[in-house]
Amino acid sequence: MELKPYLKERCKIVDKALNEFLPAARTRPKTIHEAMRYSLFAGGKRLRPILCLAAAEACDSDYKNALAPAGAVECIHTYSLIHDDLPCMDDDELRRGVPTSHVKYGEGIAVLAGDALLTIAFEILAKTPATKRYDVGAYISELAVASGSRNLIGGQVADLEGEGSDILLSPPQLKFIHQSKTAALLTASIRLGGMTADATPKKVEALTIYGQSLGLAFQVIDDILDVTQTSEKLGKSAGKDEATAKSTFPALFGLEKSRQKAGQLTRRAHDALKPFGKKADRLHEIADYLLDRDY
Ligand code: GRG
Fold first, then answer.
1. Number of folded domains that form the chain
2. Residue 242: pLDDT over 90
3. For 94, which of 104, 105, 255, 271 is 20 to 30 Å away at the CA?
4. Bigger pLDDT: 235 or 49?
5. Residue 218 CA, closest ligand 1 atom number
6. Probe residue for ligand 1, chosen from 51, 83, 84 as the CB with the greatest number of ligand atoms within 8 Å
7. Which CATH number does the domain housing residue 69 bear?
8. What CA–CA distances, in Å, run from 86 to 202, 245, 274, 293?
9. Separation CA 150–CA 204 (nearest Å)
10. What does pTM read for this prediction?
11. For residue 93, what are the domain limits?
């Protein structure tokens, strides 16, 4: 199957699983369950869950064993977007092509919808079948570390602190933010997929290098798209980085060098997949697709 129909089919599989994992919209109190579903089903690319399922397959397992971690990482990702869009953070009104959670439901419910998605992620993750090497504790710890103060939240803190300043961040500071804010959750999604397949530590390490390189490349491309695309195309406010004089790869290195950097990182991601042979074909294709994406 070509990559595009494959991605579409995988989106459907992930959406069906998420729909079953989440309380129905009519569950009391209705507002919070509606708000959780509003942001979750607003039309994300489902990149993290798709990578999770593909990593399980690259390690010789059935993707169905990875549906719970796939759902969990998407809940964490959506929570982080809701909170990132709040007036006290990035203050955005458009996400996934629709008004942000706080615009639709008010700030209080938006904070709580994010909290509820963060919490339910671990309820969902706990449903993952254990393997010989990995128990539920290992899965929980993997996602908690990636989402916590040393990674996702830590990256957001460094980002917030960097914003106030007139001078651009240094390249290592920017790399720290991108690794923590973007690459860590992407890497955990991929590692979790491998863990559900009982992958050897060596294979999990190879997936880690793939995830970290892909995650960084993904953020470099995201920064480039913010400069080169419209809000309509991206489904979120474009041009904001430049308007707020934010430190990004294009701001520090220019567009051309940023593109080269994304290419180098993608090559590194491909190299890391050597131990998996043909089984990693989808992971290779996804890496190329992300490098060439225009939204
Ligand atoms: C509030 C704890 C907390 C963290 C916020 C995720 C995040 C950290 C900020 C959002 C803004 C941003 C640039 C994040 C970097 C990761 C990124 C590029 C997110 C967008 O991911 P996509 O493109 O989004 O996969 P969809 O909507 O397709 O799922």
1. 1
2. no
3. 255
4. 49
5. 18
6. 84
7. 1.10.600.10
8. 40, 19, 42, 27
9. 20
10. 0.95
11. 3-292
